[in-house]
Amino acid sequence: MPLIPEEPQIHESAQGPRATPASGRTAPTPRPVPGPRPAAPSRPGRPGPVRPTPPAQRAQRDAVKPGPSAPAAHAAPPAAPATPQIQLIPASAEGALDAAEEAVDLLLDSGRAPGEVLVLTTGEQHPWAAHELSFGEASYWAQQDAGDDVFYAAAAAVDRAAVRPVVVVAVNGGPDAVAATALPLAHKRAGTLLIVCGDPQQINAVLGAGV
What we know:
Layout (H helix, E strand, L loop, with lengths): L54 H10 L20 E6 L5 H14 L7 E5 L5 H7 L3 H10 L4 E4 L9 E7 L5 H14 E9 L1 H11 L1
Parallel strand pairs: 1-5, 2-3, 2-4, 4-5
């Protein structure tokens, strides 16, 4: 009696390495998830005459025979948000606003979009903010929501300011309590960079305790 060859057995390949996040303060780039590898060659059957399978049975067998399962993709865990970099520009209270304006010009010249920059003042308002507030707070804050230009605001109102990639703070006077409160909050509003213009001793004392 002729023998029927064994069904070919397909061996699944081992899964590839899992993507693991790189350690550090910057957000890691996840490695690509490996796809399924080619299946191992089928094992040949025992020698002997082959009995042909009727087309109907062969089609039914091929329909129900399970194929190789692809390895499950292991997504990397979400990376922790990066801590914004802090840059200090020494300036007197009288020159802090001018230093902040120069910093904004350099940011824009380097390719930053105007809508990525927020400027806060601890003392006298920036002339643009004072002018726009004369038309009412609703239209003033609507310009922040539009996000298409540099936005200037008082440091005392930092809790209403939106998060932007770059925050520039001009410590141009005002009560010390305003700077002490505003600087840590400005650090939280900055996505990637916080620039502070003012007295280095005062700024380091506040940021060292509040950040």
